[in-house]
Task: structure prediction
Amino acid sequence: MPALQNFIDEKIRLPTPPAIALKILDAVRKDDESFDELAEIIKTDPALSARILKLANSTLYRLPNRVDSLTQATAFIGTQALKNIALSFVIIDGFQGAPQGSFDFDLFWRRAVSSAVAAEVLAENAGLRDRDIFVSSLLQDIGVLTMFLSDATLYTEVIDSKRISGKSTCETEKEKFGFDHTEVGCHLLTSWKLPDTISRPICYHHSPEPEEPYRKIARIISLADKISSMYHGTQRNKKSIEVHENLSSAYGLDRDQIDALIDRIGEKAVGIMECFSILPGKMKPFSMIMQEANEELGRLNYSYEQIVLELTQAKQNAEQLAIELKRSNDKLRELALRDGLTSLYNHRYFYEVLESQLLNSQRYSHPISLMILDLDHFKKVNDTYGHPVGDLVLRETSKALVRLVRRSDIVARYGGEEFAIILPETGLASAKVLAQRLRRGVEQQMIQYNDKLISVTVSIGLASSEMDDGEITRESLISRGDHALYKAKWNGRNRIEI
Result:
C-alpha cells in the first residue's frame, strides 16, 4: 500500500472536474433519497438534463411511458439511479479533454459503456437488483486511465510487455508499478468518497475469489468486461468461449439464449453510447460478427492443414511485429531519458528511478545509497581551454563513472558538472568503498586534447537510507547528499563526505 499511496500522492494528475461534478459527487455520497437537491444541481446544466432524460428513455430502462421531466424520471428509475447516471456523465466528460498520446480513449469509453450495459442486463437476468452496478462496471477500469495519465511512458511499457508476454494486464502492471489498476481504481473512488457499493466491487472484479458481500456483483462485472471484449477486443473467440461457459454454468442458459442475450447487450450499448456522445465505431451485433466470420471461412477452399499453417504463420508474424514494435518503443523511450551530451540518464529519469528504488528499498527492507558528485574547479577548465573542451571533459568523466560503477548502479547527469549515482541494495560501508574507487578513478584519468593532458577531480557527497531509522523520502535523501557534497567542497575538494 505505501507504493500505491506514493503513486496517488506524487503522480496522479487528473483533469480537474467541473464544479457540477463536485456537487453531484457530494449528492451521491449522501444516503438520503431526497430528489430536490439533486434536481436543482442538474437543472443548472441544461445539456446534462437533456442527456439524462435521453438515457432514461433509452432501451436501458425500457420505461412504460415516455418521460419528459427529471421528476418523472425519478419516479420511474429512482433517485439513486438518477444520481449514478449524472455521476457517470460528469466523470466521462471530465476525462474528455485529457491528452490522447498513444492511448485510445474512444475505445476505452466504448468498452466501458458496453461493460456497464452488460452488467445491468446480466444483473436483471439473474434477478439481482443492484442500483450501483451500472456505474461500478462503467468505472471498473478507471485505474487503467489513471495510471496512463499519470505515467504514460511506464504504462506504454505495460501495454508492450503484455502484448509480447501474453500475461494478464494486472500481472504486467504489478511487474512495472508494484500494484494494478483494480487497486488504483478502488483507491481513487474511495478517495472521492463514493459509496462502498460502487468502489469495492472494482477491487475484486479480476479476483478469482471476490470478498463478500461483493462477490456476486464483482463476478457480474468481470463477466460484463469479457462480453465487452467480445465486441471491442482482439481475442473475440477466446472471450466468446469463456462467456458461453460462464453463462451456461451460472445461469443454465443454452447457446441460443446466450447469443440472444449478447446481441441484446450490443444493441443496447450502441444506443447508450449515443447518450454519452461516444461513437460506437464499427460495433455490430455479435451474431452478425460470427455469421460474417463463418461465411468468410466458407469461401476459403483450404484444407485443414493449410489453415493451420497459415494461422501459425500469421501468429509468428504478429509476434515478430510486436517484438519489433517493442524494440522501437524501447529505443524511443531510451532516447527521451538520456542526456544529449553525456549519454547518461537525464535529471527527469534520475528522479523517477530514485523514487521507485526507494519504494523497493522500503518494501523489502533493503538499504539504498546515493552519491552526488561535482567536478572540482570545472569553471577553470572552461575558462582555460574553452567550452568544447569542457564538454569533452564531461563526456570522458561520464564514461569513467559508468566504467567504475557496478552494473546495478544508475549514473545520471544531475545538472551542469554535477552527477548523481543511485546505489540499490547498498549500505553505507559498501557505498564508501565504491565512492573512494570512483574518486581515485577520476583523479587518475588523463583526458587528451591535442597535445595536452587534462586531469580533473571530483568531490562526492554520500547519503544512505541506513542513516535514518524512519521512512526516508526522495527529497530528504537528495538533500542529505547535497549537504554532504557542500561539506566536501568546503573541506578542500577531491574528497568524500557523509
In short: The chain has three domains: 2-299, 302-336, 347-497.
